[in-house]
Every structure is written in structure tokens, then in C-alpha cells.
Amino acid sequence: MRFSAFISVLRSVGPVVIGISLGFTLSLLSVNWTEEACYLDGKEGEEVTLGQDGQLKGARKPNSISSINDVESEEDFEPRIVPYKQVQQSAPKKVFRAKYISTELGMRERLFVGVLTSKNTINTLGVAVNRTISHHLDTVIFFTGMRNRKVPHGMFVVSHGDERLIWNMFQNIKYILDHYINEYDWFYFVQDDTYTEADRIKALVDHLSMDRELYMGSPEEFIGGEMEGKYCYGGFGYLLSRTLLLRLQPFLENCRNDILSARPDEWLGRCIIDYTSTNCVSEYEGLQYHHYELGKNSDPSKEQSEQFKKALTVHPVSDPEQMYRLHRYFTEIELQKTYDEIAKLQAEIKNVSVVAFEGNRTAQWPVGINPPFEPKSRFEVLKWEYFTEEEIYSCIDGSPKCELSGIDRMDVADVIDVALGELNKKYKPVLHLKKQQLINGYRRFDPIRGMEYTLDLQLEVVNQKGHSRSITKRVHLVRPLSRIEIIPMPYVTEATRVHIIIPLTLQDRSYVDHFLEVFASNAFETSENAILTFLFIYDPVEAQQVNQNDIFASVKTQINTYERKYPTVKIPWISVKTETPSQIKFMDIISKKHPVDTLFFLAHANTNINSEFLNRCRMNSINNWQVFFPIHFQDYKPDVAYHNQQRPVTTDLVKDAGHFDRRSFDEACFYNSDYMATRTRMVADVQENEEILETLDIFDMFVKYSGLHVFRAVEPALLQQYSYQACNPRLSEDIYHRCVQSNLEGLGSRSQLAMLLFEQEQGNST
């Protein structure tokens, strides 16, 4: 019993005892055991330690208590005041930052091309060289001694003013060292009677190390054979590295004064060998500089040698026509190489797709083209257009059927020819297929892939024995989208003054009050760089009564009121008399009263104009390049859009409030010079038929006669209130039809019109 009682007590007390013992043990292990410091001069209570530098330093153990002497020593301490001296800051140095990141990081372009030409050949061979290589290479500069007064368009020409060949070569190297040595790694020189395969030169340079002193071309022995080494013959062109030119730079003047030579390429070779000990080579690290010497009156299409096919340069070229034939030949070779690479990649994709998770289903047709667009709802399903060889059943004007013409007809014919070519390529020589007719044709535009076609062709199949039969074959084709490219556009600014032209008829007078009120707040009060001009249009009867009853008297009074309110503003107006209002006739009068560089904005009095739109008018109208026809947002008829509802103060751009009126072409931004040039081109047609001035509007005129880019886009900043247009039947059928359609579509949305009809039907039924 006693033992069991002891065990029970031990179980309850044991953990406590073990915990206390463990705590004491850990505390003893953590104590720093140090020796007592020595007592100096027999005084206790002062504990000192000896530092590493031999000096005595006072210290105490962490668990000790400071003595009275320690407190007294701390009280005797006097702080030392260090006077503050203000540091005079020097003026900060201006940090120079490069304009481009590539300059600051020391990044350079790969290849500079210098073409050696002359006054007599720059307009013939020089132009041919420029047309064949300039769109493949970044920088091409033409060096000449003397030049004509008129430089060919699109060419950068440097003239040295001297016909001495050696002097010009010296100036060429000096010009590059002064202007381009820090911007390029490689410098390529070629004569204008040499054809250069630009892509191959670029590929060669891309595989060469930039820090090598390299002189590469077609090696030739020096004339006479007295000098050791070889120079690069200029007829086949040559490459110079930046490192080599930098090493040659200090000795360039010595070369000019000391080296005598009859040929510029030989002079340069002597200079490089004498001062850099670098010889011309045609091969470097396994890379060959292939060239080919073209025989006199040779036809490039009949040259079959491998050396010719591999050539980077071909020399001599006798005339521009031969240069273009060479360019076509080598372009076809490179194009065939590209096709072969595509076929090889497609075969590799097919082979890899076999072992993929989903097997061959992972390889979309055609191989290498993006998969088709997958709609997420019924509203995103792409629509197929049905067509035959003569008709298409999807027309722009909404008609169910129209004639297949123009670019659509060319598109269908091209697709059928490609389909026959691919089928014959597949089945030859066993079978030969001929087209009999197109039974069915379908096409749709896929925004991811391109234009897709499905053709049902009736074909005549002829075998090798001459037997034939008629079959029906369905084929699928895709015209894929090409890669995205940046098209250079002329530079425009938002500082151009806009001349706003507002034609007014008798029916438009009611809009003037609201128009001037909005325009004054958006333009007059903000000092917008724009001039407002009104064009008052009188019919013959109204013009005769202008002195007794001027229909625009109230408008002229309003103009005077705003001119007095804004003293810096002048609002000119022009009066014209005509039976049939015509945009072209009006602009003929206005164009003569303004300079050729004037930017016009032709608008309607019912249009709200603001600074946001005027800036887009300036940016989208490019002189001698592009005209701009914005699509305004027009409110629906209030009685339809807000039936049994309160009308809002301001209109939002929502589908129930209005729509972009794609039938209207009244608004236009264009330069006077473009208008005058276009009118000049239509003079011959006007002489044959004067009514063309009344049947065409300015949009049709620019499309048919100008050759400019016609830029048409929706414009959210250009708003119009609802108005019913009086369509003139004397205008062309197309313009009259557009006007009628615009009135009908401007009434309201389909759902709003349907609700009105539904309510009307309900009212009639009751």
C-alpha cells in the first residue's frame, strides 16, 4: 500500500521535478564562465580588462552591480562639442543621356552598304541597284564624284565633287569613319554594275564575329606581282569589318599621300595590307564569299552552274534590264527554298503529331496555320457566302443575288485555278484533271486563319490510256493571312488649321442656332485653331428676292452677334445660286478661294463638332496620301427611341439611343491640293458628260479618280441629332438610294420599331 501510494505521488510530482532540474541544467550551461579581473593598486570594486591593443578598458560582468566609483567616473565625464561645418555643394554636373537606348548600351546595326556609282550611271544602273536591294537592307548610300542636279527619288546620294577614282575612294572611307563607324559592325562596298543578293549578304554577316579584322571578297594578285598579298576585286564587292577600319583610321592620310595606284580597289588593298597586314580572303571559318562572273550578253535564266546559283554577287551587269532579270532569277530560287523549308516543317509536324496525346488530331489543317475560330455563342458563328462562277448570293446592298464582278470574280477564278493545280500535282502522271464547271462554292473570312473556301468541282478525269470520265470532287482551300507589317506613313501634326465648311439650304436654317452654341463653347472659347465658314445656297427664285426677303438674314444676324461676342473670331460666309445642290460644285467655288495647303472639313449644320474630333481630322488627313470620311453617330427619332419615356438631357453611345450612319458620306476631311489634283483627273469625263458633277459626291470622286487612301471609320466624337433628310431625286441613283436608306435606318432600332408595331396591332385589335 505504501509503495503504491509512493508511486502515485511520484507520478504527480515527477514531471515537475524533472522540469525544474532540466531548467537549472540549461541555465548553468548558458552562463559565461570568466576569470576575475586583477585588482590594481590593491583597490577592490574596480574591475578592468585588458583590451587587444594593450590599453586598460573598464568592464563588468553581466550579473555584477556597478560600484560607487563607477558612478562617480561617469558623473565627471564632460562631453566635447564638435563644431558643424556646412559642406559646400558643387553645381551638379549635367548628365548626358543618349537619344536612343541602343546608343547608350553601345548596340550597333549589322551592315552598312555603300554603292559606288557615277554621274553617268546613277540614273540607270544606280536606280536598278536601289530597286533590287534597298527594301532588303537597312542603310544603302550611293557614293559618286559628280552628280546630276536632280537626284533619283528614294536614294541617299553622297557626292564628293571630284571625278578622280582614288580620291573618291579615300573620301568614301573617310566619310564612313566620320559618320557611321560607331553605328555598324560591317561595311560592304559594291559597284553599281554588280548584282547583289541582299539576303545572302545579310546571312553571311550574321554568322561573322564582329571583333575580327576581316577583309573579305574575291582575292586578286596585284598588278605586276611585286607586292605580296592579295586585294579584293571591287567588281564582286567586298566586306570590311569595323575593327579593321578603326585600325586603319590613323594611317588613312599616309595611304592617300604615299600609295600610287590606277585602281581604287587596288589602292585600298595596298593601304590595308601595308598598315594592318590583313589580306583579302574569300573564305573565313567555313563561310564562303561566292561570286560569279557573268559572260557578255548572258541570259540568267539559262545559267545552270552551281557556282552561279550560290553566288552572293554577279558581275558585270550591262544594263538595268539584265539587273532586273537577275533579281527575278535569284528571288525565285530563294522562294523555292522557302517552299521546301515549309514542306519539311509540315512533314516534321505530322510525324511529331502521331505520338501526341490526341494523335493526328493535334495537327490542324493546313499544317502550320492557326486553327479555325471557335465561336463561344450563336452570335459569333461565322457566316459562309455561297457563290457560283457568275453570281454571288451575299451582296453589299442587301440584295439576295448580284453579279460576281471585280475583285470578287478574280478571287474566285484564282481559287479554282489553284485547286486544279494542286489536284493535278497530286494525281499526275496517272491522272490528268480538267475543269468542267463549278457546282457549288462557299467562302468565309476567319479572323484567325484568313479566307476559307469550299468548292464542289465537276471535273473531267483522263488516265494515261486516254480514257476519260466526269467526276465531282470537293476541295477545301485556305488563303492564309500574311504576317503583320508596319507601313511607313507621312508625318502629321495636330497644329494644322482646319477650315470648317457648313453648307446651308432653306431647310437647314433651324439647326444653326444649336450649332453655333455648341461650336462656340468647343472652339471659340478654347481658341481652337479652326476657321468656320458658312456656304449659303440659294435656288434661282430665292436669289432674285435676296434684297427684299433674304432667307438667311437671321443666320447672318447670328453670325454678327457671335463676332461681337468674340472679337478675335471672324466667321466668313459665301453665297451661291444653283438649282441642284452638288458637293463638287460647291467645293469648286471654295477651293479657288483658299491656298493649296488648306485642310477642309466639310460638315452638316446638324453636326456637333469638338476639339477631339478636329484633332483626329488633322491626324487622319494626310496631304498627297490620305483623305478621311468619318461616320457620325446619329440619334434615333425621339418619338421612337423614347416612346412613353422621358427624353434624356444628353445622349450616350448605346444601341438604343442611336447608330453610326454608314449610309452618310456628307462629312469629309481633305486637303485642298488633293481636291484640286482629283478634279484635274476627272476633267475629261466632265467634258463628255457634265451631269457627272451632279451625280457624284466627293466620296465617289476621291474613290474613282484620286488614287489616294480613302480612310473611312466610325467617329464617336462626331454626333448628330435626328433629322429627316430631303433626298434629291436628280442626284445619281446610288446617292438617292443611300439617302432613303439613311432615313429609314435612322428612325429607330429593330426592336423599338417592332414594339411600336406590336402596340399598334394591339390597339387595332381592341
Automatic annotation (TrEMBL):
Protein name per Swiss-Prot or TrEMBL: Chondroitin sulfate synthase 2
Organism, as annotated: Nibea albiflora
